[in-house]
Amino acid sequence: MVKNLIKSALKPSPTSVYTKILMNHLQLISITSSFNFEWPSSILSFFSAVTPIATASDNLISFDCFLDTRSEGSVDTTSNTAPDSDLRVGQLNVIIYWLLPWILALVVIVAYSVILRKRQKLNARFLTCYIFILFMIFPSITQKMVDQFNCQEYDGELRSRKDLQVYCWKAWHFKITLYVALPGILIYSIGIPAGVLYLMRLDKDKLETLIVKEKFGFLFNGFKRKFYYWEIALMYRKVLMIFISVFMNRIGLIVQALVTLIVLVVFIQVNNLKRPFADRALNEIENLSLLTATITIYCGIFFLSAKDPTSQSFNKNRDFSLDTTMIFVLFILIVGSNILFMVIWTIKFYFIVREMIRDKYPKLYIYVFLCCRKDRWIRENVQRAKNKKNEEIIAKIEDVQYFMKDMKTIYVNHVNYEGHEKFIRLLYIIEDMQPKIDLTIKKNEFRVDGKIARERRFDPEHLRNALDDK
Q1: Domain coordinates in residue numbering, the chain
Q2: What is the pLDDT of residues 36-68, one digit of tens each?
Q3: Is 0.85 surpassed by the pTM of this model?
Q4: Segment (H or E) for 188
Q5: Distance between CA 423 and CA 429 in Å, rounded?
Q6: CA-to-CA dists, residue 401 to 59, 269, 405, 407, angstroms
């Protein structure tokens, strides 16, 4: 597995990035479904279909079956509380998950010490393998630690939502939460991404070297090199969403929903501004994923805020209720937006796989996708070259936009710039050349301030000629 990991890091596949975005999206939906927004049964059924896929990586390792040694006859079904002296399975899980990274580190060291004798090679391979393992078990560790704080009031008593027989902040729960779960959150949930980010920053100027790609390639592949750290940002986003789902649960569900909306909107804005993915399509899919989650939370606020019109406290001037039609509309919005995301993701993934087949097995591609017509292959090659040139131009335009934005910030802050004269000259050149390279055509006369003006629209033919002009 590690060999395949290193191989994929050296020769990255675009499908892995698409798969990562899909899993992040499903995990977002899974976290959203855990919010107690009084979802109707139809939406809960939709969430229940998504959750097992989303939590597959989170539940990669499970010790429940090994720890729960109770026989059927030994379970006291008449009691709804656990004895204070009993250490519950969930609490044992927390202890094991706390120790798991250290146990795995020892196992990896021993394994590679036997397999590899060269110290330098051992260090590189160990770091690659261990970071990969940490990232695989990271969601499970975070969830187990945070679940210890997930308490809710039942029958006037504060109980753990994961094990209703456990009273919160009493006996073993207090000890495990304070001395195991809390340090675990600080060390693992916050510390693991921070530690990996620190190691990546040390090698940020060597990202194209073989040894750095072996160590961190699976993390920064798919992103622009200046955003090599973006996978860490996505990990912290996941941690933040888990924190909101647990720690803000008792503050208020409306507050929880609004904070979640703010977080999602901020990430949409940041993704739009930074556009961290190397492929433009990936940035668009990430935006669509975040927008879908935002729509889901926004619709959830309606379910959360609606009141029963038959209750005595219902005020027609202040409160509102959801009838069958409105529930159906919200259901369509939630499910429809998620289905739309899946359809767009599937289409783009299909074309990525098709391109991979085209590059690796051209004869098979001609036979399967082009019906054995080589003339279509030639036309595709021409169109493909134009599309590639078009994407390169778009990437350059985006880079220039970022540069111009940075320069604007410099001048807004009244900071002197060494290349002042060159930059001003560049602005004048752009201003002078802009009318000469206009790629629009005139359309539809109309009047502005009594003068005839013309609406302008984009002209693909002009752009095509410009792209072909060498």
Answers
A1: 57-65+83-250, 389-468
A2: 888 888 888 888 877 766 565 555 566 655 565
A3: no
A4: none
A5: 10
A6: 43, 16, 6, 10
